[in-house]
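We modelled the chain as a single entity of 222 amino acids. Its sequence is:
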Amino acid sequence: MTAPDEPRSSAGARLLTFAAWSVLVLGLWLWGREITGVPAPVPGQGGAAVGLGLPVAHAPLSGAPPARVDVPSIGVQAPVIPRGLDADGAIEPPPYDRPGTVGWWGGGAQPGEAGTALLVGHVDTASKPAVFYGLSSAQQGDKVRVVRADGTIAEFTIEDVRVYERAGFDAHKAYGPRVRGRAELRLVTCGGAYDKKAKQYTANVVVSAYLTGEGVRSGTAA
């Protein structure tokens, strides 16, 4: 049970139920690493946009851990730290005293490489909005830029924003790759209604994006 003085989103910040993780932990490492070896769509070589007006996918990049994530359309510019699993098998969220920080599941893909990279963040604290408070208002076509530890930037384009109810949560549907071999990204936070009795939110907001460009951070040698 959540302590009375603990932030109200602490229980809700367990982004996946144990039942969902029993599926996800078995499969997400494979999804994230894309061991099938199927090549990603490349511009000019059959790469196709996933929606009307969306850009074609960029070829995956070499691996590099994320350092910062920017979502300009909703005002997010946040540091990223690696996270593992907690005692209940859920992704360990960023510390509650760092509500402006995003967590990256280090057991999955690194943003920009083939597979599905997973970034998680709190929606609120006991008294104010947190880093992903506005995530549900992101739109198809919005950009997500991940600054990586090697100074490179992986630029993603959002293809959809969905709300998944915790009841009957399908981890493969939420986190499995949409296109094999493509570099994809999921941004996840709590959503739905806040259940005061259970002290958790009833759903998760999942933003899905795919790699469409790359760059180098200003002041960093190429």
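As a brief sanity check on the tokenised model: Helices lie at 18-33, 171-175. Residues 1-49 have pLDDT under 50 and may be disordered.
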